[in-house]
Write a structure and sequence with these properties.
The structure holds two protein chains of two kinds.
Chain A: H1 23-34, H2 40-48, H3 67-70, H4 74-77, E1 113-115, E2 134-136, E3 149-154, E4 164-167, H5 168-173, E5 177-184, H6 201-205, E6 208-217, H7 218-224, E7 234-239, E8 246-250, H8 251-255, E9 260-265, E10 268-269, E11 279-281, E12 294-300, H9 307-310, E13 315-316, E14 322-323, E15 332-337, E16 342-344, E17 348-357, E18 363-369, E19 377-378, E20 380-381, E21 391-399, E22 404-412, H10 421-428, E23 441-444, E24 450-454
Parallel strand pairs in A: 3-12
Antiparallel strand pairs in A: 1-2, 3-4, 5-6, 6-9, 7-8, 7-12, 9-10, 9-11, 13-14, 15-17, 17-21, 18-19, 18-22, 20-21, 22-23, 23-24
Helix pairs in contact in A: 1-2
Chain B: H1 8-27, E1 35-36, H2 39-45, E2 60-62, H3 63-78, H4 97-102, H5 118-121, H6 125-135, H7 146-159, E3 168-170, H8 174-178, E4 187-188, E5 224-225, E6 247-249, H9 260-269, H10 271-278, H11 296-302, H12 309-319, H13 337-348
Antiparallel strand pairs in B: 2-3
Helix pairs in contact in B: 3-7, 6-7, 12-13
Classes of the chains: A alpha+beta, B mainly alpha.
């Protein structure tokens, strides 16, 4: 196999601005470089230009300069568009590749399905609301907030002093709280429990998003209703959609004030796909408990064994038993650039970037390895580092063109360290589906293409 | 700083402010926000049934009644015997008479067993009743009566050999049937992933990673990666990465001159495709291949010469159909007349993509 390092000193692969290089284009570049051709890159890029772009390479600057500098473009010489052309602004037309996507073959319907957020293209820690991952159990709705109600009741007549009903108007009058939290589906990375199954970080880790949520602490509402905390040990949350999704919510997180009845997301109202006009926010706990279209809260003295805690979202262990009521998302991280399905276009400097999070608290450190886990280096954590929130990390890396096994490992404020696949599978087997927080490995191949791999 | 004693006018203002604050404190909360729920309102929404059967309404239904309901409203997605893997995971299968005795499904220990059915996993009968009651049928949730929920539950249990063919399920015998569930002893809460002490003592997490930094004892070998033939299984990855920055997407298209997103976009732009999606037709029908129901092209071909094909097909789409295309019936669909006619017209025109 030809590698970039074979050609050291004879020619360098330069970035192609308008296009990407496929495997054959990379091979062409390498062959022509070996042959001493000086125009190899121009030809390769022209061959790879599939979207009708100019395909001009910056490698050579004939005539003393870059045409992008020398030829003033229309946007520099003419009048642009006016204000409010778009009442609600959209991403640039050049960003169309970053979309929520389904994983082919995972489900037969789109109403009971999931779409994955494009983590490979996101910066910082906040997920744009339109790219937030989706999980619907019986289709999504855009519910009229004027008609929506939230009911609080008890599992018996004395659990609450007064069962209550709230309108959105009333909930939004109450003192609100805004907090940044990640939400991760319990089945995130679930397709990878047995072996590598999907190509990119969008599909391996994309049931993960992070937003600033705004709402009222659920404890405030339960106190208004006169909750009997001596007897009330479990809370049921129920949605208003066809599935009327139910989950048992841990009282400990409600009494700590963390659980929010949220209507806001990233400065605006929740998106319909994410539960407009009301959803529960249960920090650190898997997404299925963040009940969307929230219509009812019941305080009770026993757990509820809903469908999504007795038949689904149960973790199969090697002894054939299922763990039920598994809720906390444990410490986890993933490198998002470079990641599977990407191609590095040159040797030299890269910033290894990724995301780390823990349902048990703050991320305290992230270590990164480029040699398959033999040696690790401590990554920089970008501030702010918040509780039960995504944390962005980075590490400087000079790629020499050789194959590299790139991985990250997070630790959290509870003392947990993210495990490799071998110790995780030694305890939980390979059939769990849920709560896979193993270290992810990407193979950067000599040609620059990155593949999803597992080392055990 | 002014003091409240400095002038009587200020003092008056201060008294008023103190009074306002006192009012807030006295109310002990948020006066004017929220109201009492009425008993009728609570009854309308409080539909959950717990494992101790609290919340279970009285009613009854037989296996035979359940079979009729099943074949009309459930078999389309789940198969006549609850075995179908076409739309959702199978409900029935993988359990034995021995499992009913032990309460542990033995096949859950077999890594070679292909899948897990609902009856292999279910540990609480209340869960099954509650879910059918709140969310089924999938396209018309909460449309079954209490007796119908009992009947469908009874039929499903019968398919798993948990109750006999002449069984009638009611609120009186749910506990007896619970004691026969094949996996009733198959779940545990012995783990550290529930915050709080409600399920017993707090436990330590079961897996801890290594903090080794240098010369760690690993011998990296590639144990698993995607085979080359699957490169394009998720579409052309080149079109799923930003086109500017430190890296590009790898082209996984066999013919990069024809990006897949164009044909995909063209397909999605077809209004009929949207109608088929919106009305969940595609859960059971594909355009060109048999899924649960016949391919839409096959439907179009069969009725090609029929003079009243447009109205006939629209009526079939709305009203359902039995015995035309095999044993699995198509249930009646709650779509609009206009949608049904639009789909019928598209079928009459040959179901072209």
């Amino acid at each position: 196999m030809t590698t970039l390092s074979d050609r050291a000193g004879r020619g360098r692969l330069r970035p192609a601005p308008e296009s990407f290089l496929d495997a054959s284009a990379i091979a062409t570049v390498q062959a022509e470089a070996r042959g001493g051709r000086r125009d190899f890159l121009r030809r390769a890029v022209a061959a790879a230009a599939v979207t009708g772009g100019a395909g001009a390479a910056q490698a050579q600057t004939p005539g003393g300069g870059d045409p992008s500098i020398l030829n003033l473009p229309e946007h520099t010489r003419a009048l642009g568009q006016g204000v409010a052309s778009e009442g609600y602004g959209k991403p640039s037309r050049f960003e169309v590749n970053l979309q929520r996507r389904q994983s082919p073959g995972l489900t037969q319907t789109r109403q009971s399905s999931v779409s994955f957020a494009p983590l490979q293209g996101l910066f910082g820690i906040v997920t744009p609301s339109g790219l937030h991952f989706e999980r619907h159990h019986q289709g999504w709705w855009d519910i009229d907030p004027a008609q929506h109600r939230l009911m609080l009741n008890g599992s018996d007549a004395t659990m609450l002093k007064r069962p209550m009903v709230f309108t959105l108007d009333e909930l939004m009058r109450l003192p609100s709280m805004s907090r940044f939290h990640f939400i991760e589906c319990g089945a995130n990375t679930g397709m990878e429990w047995g072996n590598v199954a999907v190509p990119t970080v969008q599909y391996t880790h994309g049931m993960l998003s992070c937003s600033e949520f705004t709402g009222v602490p659920l404890i405030t509402l339960l106190e208004m209703a006169g909750a009997d905390w001596r007897r009330g040990k479990f809370v049921l949350a129920e949605g208003a959609d066809g599935s009327s999704m139910t989950r048992t919510i841990p009282v400990e997180l409600i009494r700590s004030g963390e659980v929010l009845v949220a209507y806001g997301q990233n400065g605006e109202m929740l998106r319909p796909e994410n539960g407009y006009p009301l959803r529960l926010v249960v920090p650190g706990v898997q997404g299925v408990s963040w009940v969307k279209y929230l219509r009812r809260i019941e305080l009770g003295d026993q757990p509820y064994a809903s469908k999504d805690e007795n038949v689904h979202y149960i973790d199969l262990m090697p002894d054939g038993r299922h763990r039920a009521y598994t809720s906390i998302q444990e410490v986890k991280s993933v490198i998002t650039t470079p990641s599977g399905g990407q191609v590095l276009l040159d040797r030299g400097y890269y910033s290894l970037n990724g995301l780390a999070w823990s349902g048990r608290g703050k991320v305290t450190r992230v270590d990164v390895s480029v040699d398959g886990g033999r040696n690790w280096a401590r990554a920089r954590l970008q501030t702010p580092v918040m509780d039960k929130c995504l944390t962005r990390f980075s590490l400087d890396w000079a790629w020499n063109g050789d194959p590299a096994l790139v991985m990250s490992r997070a630790s959290d404020s509870s003392g947990q360290v993210q495990p490799a696949y071998a110790p995780l599978r030694a305890v939980r087997g390979r059939r769990s589906i849920y709560h896979n927080n193993a270290i992810q490995t990407w193979l950067v191949q000599a040609g620059g293409e990155v593949k999803n791999v597992q080392l055990s | 700083m002014f003091s409240c004693r400095s002038a009587w006018l200020l003092a008056l203002a201060c008294v008023a402010a103190d009074a306002a604050l006192a009012q807030t404190r006295a109310a002990g909360g948020y006066p004017g926000i929220g109201r009492n729920a009425t008993a009728t309102e609570i009854a309308a929404w409080d539909i959950d049934v717990r494992p101790d059967f609290k919340g279970l309404p009285a009613g009854r239904g037989t296996v035979a009644q359940g079979q009729l309901l099943w074949e009309a409203q459930c078999a389309g997605c789940h198969g006549v015997f609850g075995e179908s893997n076409e739309v959702f995971s199978p409900l029935v299968g993988g359990t034995t008479k021995k499992d009913i005795e032990t309460g542990r499904v033995a096949r859950l220990t077999d890594p070679g067993f292909p899948g897990r059915t609902t009856l292999m996993k279910l540990s609480q009968l209340s869960t099954l009743w509650d879910y059918i009651n709140r969310a089924m049928p999938w396209t018309a949730p909460k449309s079954l009566s209490v007796d119908e929920v009992y009947a469908v539950t009874a039929y499903l249990l019968h398919l798993g050999d948990i109750v006999p063919a002449n069984f009638e399920l009611s609120q009186l015998n749910m506990r007896e049937v619970q004691a026969r569930l094949p996996n009733r002893n198959g779940q545990t809460t012995e783990h550290a992933k529930w915050p709080g002490p409600e399920f017993g003592t707090r436990r330590k997490p079961d897996v801890q990673g290594s903090a080794c930094m240098v010369d760690c004892a690993v011998e990296p070998t590639l144990a698993s990666y995607l085979p080359d033939h699957a490169r394009n299984a998720h579409g052309n990855l080149a079109n799923q990465q930003r086109a500017v920055g430190a890296q590009r997407g790898a082209s996984t298209e066999p013919r990069p001159e024809q990006p897949s997103h164009q044909s995909l976009a063209a397909a999605q732009a077809t209004p009929v495709r949207d109608l088929l999606q919106k009305n969940v037709c595609l859960a059971c029908h594909q355009v060109d291949a048999k899924l649960v129901g016949p391919s839409l092209r096959a439907v179009a071909d069969r009725h090609a010469g029929r003079p009243d094909a447009r109205t006939y097909l629209a009526a079939r789409i709305k009203g359902g159909s039995v015995g035309q295309w095999g044993t699995i019936p198509m249930p009646a669909q709650a779509l609009s007349e206009a949608d049904a006619l639009a789909i019928a017209e598209w079928l009459v025109a040959g179901a072209k993509p």
